[in-house]
Fold this sequence. Notes:
heterodimer, A: Ribosomal Protein S5, domain 2, five-stranded antiparallel sheet, 4 helices, globular, B: alpha+beta, Ribosomal Protein S5, domain 2, 5 helices, 12 strands, 28% helix
Amino acid sequence: xxxxxxxxxxxxxxxxLDGRTKDEVRPVSIETGVVPVADGxxxxxxxxxxxxxxxxxPMEAHPRKIQRQxxxxxxxxxxxxxxxxxxxxRPGFNRRSREISKVTAEALESVVLTExxxxxxxxxxxxxxxxxxxxxxAGITAASVALAHAGIPxxxxxxxxxxxxxxxxxxCDLNKEEDNYGEADLPMGILPNTGELVFLQMDGDLxxxxxxxxxxxxxxxxxxxxxxxxxxxxxGDE
Amino acid sequence: MSIxxxxxxxxxxxxxxxxxxxxxxxxxxxxxxxxxxxINCLPRAEGSARVRMGDTIVLAGVKFQIMTPYPDRPNxxxxxxxxxxxxxxxxxxxxxxPSAESIELxxxxxxxxxxxxxxNTEDLCIIPGEKxxxxxxxxxxxxxxxNLFDAFGLAAIAxxxxxxxxxxxxxxxxxxxxxxxxxxxxxxYHKIGGRFVYDADKREELGGxxxxxxxxxxxxxxHSLQKGLKGIFTAAEFAxxxxxxxxxxxxxxxxxxxxxxxx
Lengths: 238, 263
């Protein structure tokens, strides 16, 4: 959270830089089958975010030391392509992508029925092609759709979204400027059928009332995004 | 990349088909898969392209940085080409440091572009000895169903030709198109069942032998060659695929020119 700077993220009429009101989600569209050689795949475009997730497996887990006798292991990698941001990203793993890969894996392990595939591995590859704030949420959401597309049994799909605060106003689904100049960021991973959570992070400063407002925005946004996830998998009208 | 076990049955099957002048997907010996080329598809890149050849899909993005020119070349900027095949692209591509295969891919694509002289590094100088542009071309595989070399080569030159120098963002003048004077194109031939075919898919790569990559520039000038994998070929075989490459490179060059004109 970088403080106000010179950027005015919300005008006097309550309209944000991308034209949304404070409770609106950016446009989301999802398609499946975008990596034809994978067992399952999905692409999510969410605002300017463009994220691809591919699933391979279940397959043999090797080396053997990573095998678990009672369940499958999820091997999740989150990565930003070098051309996904304004300043080029040097290829290779860094601390940020390693942490995001870890929390993403833990969120997905909470819903995938890994006990059905002992001693095997399910690979989940998340690639950010174009980034505009909320890439970890886009990655978790795309990975859920890719897992479903691969036919991996799950108790529910995870919908992830981040709301936050800018100029002391709580806003739904942060965009790039709000993420850079805002005062709080609350990403959550939500199971839309039960309202349970499998992923939660937060940084910044929120009063108890603001925290509740941001929480509620995420819950509402999750329902909207979940509709698009189901549409992408099942086809039919939006 | 881990090399999967190749069933001898696949090799034998492809060889039987080759003896009858056939390929497993019904294509002719020198017939490529359908090619889709889309340019300026990556909003955060200064130039970009997406190429699809069958189920092989790749992206290329161009970024610019300001560099200090090297002391022995104070009037020149730089060009860097990097290719990555991350595990998203296929079940046999593994995480970790770049494999020998992906390094070879990047270097062969880089040589074709660099040696064609399509970018004049002196044009990239801003203030001699102080500031120059470094052009960074990143090529990225989304889905590998064979012949990543040609897909990478095509995406790379198309992305470069669509690039805009972001001078305003770096406060060193006005934005302008990157000057790319030539269009080098790569064509790859794999020996399968004893004969060379163009644009092998993954099954053909797995059940085949050596491969030859030819990059031709405008006027059919040769800019890079690479023979990969175990195998022996004759001068006559090379002459035949070189001849084939001339006409195919010209077709693909037209595809790039048309895509750029459509912008």
